[in-house]
Amino acid sequence: MELIDQVSINALSKRDLLLIIKALEFTNENTNLNDFIELRNSIVKELCFLTNTTEEVFIDYLEANN
Which top-level group of life is the source organism from (predicted)? Predict the structure, then answer.
């Protein structure tokens, strides 16, 4: 098996991205392990950078019509 250096999100839907973000939040809240919220924040920060939006605008976009 080849090592994966980068992961692409091209095939993920808005719903999938929202589920990942919400799952990381939920897991952090229920385990108190900061790794989950740090991963969530890192993903959201990168996506906001790529879309040139704020976190609030990006999350609202994902939640729209879901």
Answer: Bacteria
Structure letter (DSSP) for residue 10: T
Which residues lie closer than 8 Å to 55 by C-beta, 6 or more apart? Answer: 44, 45, 48
For residue 31, the Cα-to-chain-centroid distance in whole angstroms is 18
Q: Give the global pTM.
A: 0.82
Q: For 31-55, write each residue's pLDDT tens digit.
A: 999 999 999 999 999 999 999 999 9
- List phi, psi (to 5°) of 44: -65, -40
Cα–Cα nearest to 36, from 16, 22, 46, 47? 22
**Cα 45 to Cα 21: distance, rounded to the nearest angstrom:** 11
